[in-house]
């Protein structure tokens, strides 16, 4: 099977393998192979490989000795990975512990296994976890070539939204003024800065803002990211009319901040508005709320109506990409 591999001279193979392992980039499903003086080291995320290494596609065999959690359990468990933390969502504590033990006994790279113990709640959008294996809930998540340090017990982060974040980020152009009103640890803000935008990123959670600043440094964009702890409404005094692009990823309550968004918008601004609505009319309530806040000061044009994911029975998490143009 053809997979992305780092190609290095044989004599540099072990040091390169260790460096890739330290970044959690080794794809342990496949064998490391040698040919004509080079080693081919399979990697999971070629965009995260340092530019000093050459990445090529190579036919390499699957590892025959890999042990999966399913091999240990006799069934395929459901889980998510966030860096080297594995996340379960099991109602039965005994089943959750069995799965955690199987993960620990498998070849799956994991330092911690947790089970969801509560829903996301509170003003800071965090949840409680049962730690079943390991100790630390801090990890480094890699997404489309960027690294995000975070502690899942202290901040909100959803790896399921990676594709949606990438969709928005690809629209960003160099020199834009981009404003993220509910920024978390920076999964929108940092990649937007990497594309050349000047970014203001705000969040109520002081721990998230500290991680945001760390992640800006980690990804080499600290000069382009202004991280602000506090309520997005407080941005209006300094950033009125500043934004060319606004991300409002706070489903359920983003509508309460639409007057603030309009005040922050420049003469032309693209608004990425996230909402959760019933399947019968997933986009209508958000669109009506945006028009009520923006008109008549702005012309409002819908560019994209997108269902991001199913949220609950008969409810969708949706995004409206809306262009505001000052009259």
From TrEMBL:
Which PROSITE patterns does the entry mention? SAM_MT_TRM5_TYW2
Xref: Gene3D superfamilies: 3.30.70.2580, Vaccinia Virus protein VP39 (3.40.50.150)
Quote the Pfam families the UniProt record gives. TRM5-TYW2_MTfase (PF02475), Trm5_N (PF18093), TYW2_N_2 (PF25133)
Q: Cytoplasm: is it a keyword of this entry? A: yes
In which organism is this protein found? Halobellus ruber
Q: Which UniProt keywords apply?
A: Cytoplasm, Methyltransferase, S-adenosyl-L-methionine, Transferase, tRNA processing
Q: Where does the record locate the signal sequence feature? A: none
Q: Which domain of life is it from?
A: Archaea
GO molecular function ontology, one term from the record: tRNA methyltransferase activity
Domain SAM-dependent methyltransferase TRM5/TYW2-type: from-to ranges: 79-326
Task: Cite a GO CC annotation.
Answer: cytoplasm
Which InterPro entries does the record match to this protein? MeTrfase_TRM5/TYW2, SAM-dependent_MTases_sf, TRM5-TYW2-like_MTfase, TRM5/TYW2-like_N, Trm5a/b_N
Task: Choose any GO biological process term that the UniProt entry carries and state it.
Answer: tRNA N1-guanine methylation
Q: What is this protein called?
A: Class I SAM-dependent methyltransferase family protein
Q: Methyltransferase as a keyword?
A: yes
């Amino acid at each position: 099977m053809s997979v992305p591999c780092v190609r290095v001279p044989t004599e540099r193979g072990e040091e390169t393998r260790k460096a890739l392992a330290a970044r959690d980039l080794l794809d342990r499903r496949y064998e490391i192979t040698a040919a004509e003086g080079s080693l081919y080291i399979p990697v999971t995320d070629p965009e995260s490989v340092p530019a000093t290494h050459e990445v090529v596609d190579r036919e390499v065999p699957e590892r025959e000795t890999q042990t999966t959690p399913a091999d240990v359990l006799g069934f395929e468990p459901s889980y998510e990975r966030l860096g080297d933390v594995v996340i379960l969502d099991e109602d039965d504590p005994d089943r959750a512990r069995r799965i955690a033990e199987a993960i620990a006994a498998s070849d799956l790279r994991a330092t911690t296994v947790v089970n969801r113990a509560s829903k996301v709640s509170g003003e800071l959008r965090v949840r409680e976890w049962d730690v079943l294996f390991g100790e630390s809930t801090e990890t480094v998540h890699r997404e489309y070539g960027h690294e995000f340090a975070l502690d899942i017990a202290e901040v909100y982060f959803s790896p399921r939204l990676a594709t949606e974040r990438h969709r928005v980020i690809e629209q960003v152009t160099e020199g834009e003024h981009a404003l993220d009103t509910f920024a978390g640890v920076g999964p929108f803000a940092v990649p937007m800065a990497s594309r050349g935008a000047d970014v203001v990123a705000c969040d109520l959670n002081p721990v998230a803002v500290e991680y945001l600043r760390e992640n800006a440094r980690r990804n080499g964009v600290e000069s382009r990211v202004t991280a602000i702890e506090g309520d997005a409404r407080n941005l209006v005094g300094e950033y009125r009319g500043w934004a060319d692009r606004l991300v409002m990823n706070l489903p359920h309550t983003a509508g309460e901040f639409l007057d603030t968004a309009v005040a922050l918008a420049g003469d032309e601004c693209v608004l990425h508005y996230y909402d959760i609505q019933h399947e019968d009319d997933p986009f209508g309530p958000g669109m009506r709320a945006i028009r009520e806040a923006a008109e008549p000061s702005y012309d409002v044009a819908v560019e994209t109506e997108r269902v991001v994911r199913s949220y609950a029975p008969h409810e969708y998490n949706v995004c409206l990409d809306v262009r505001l143009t000052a009259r």
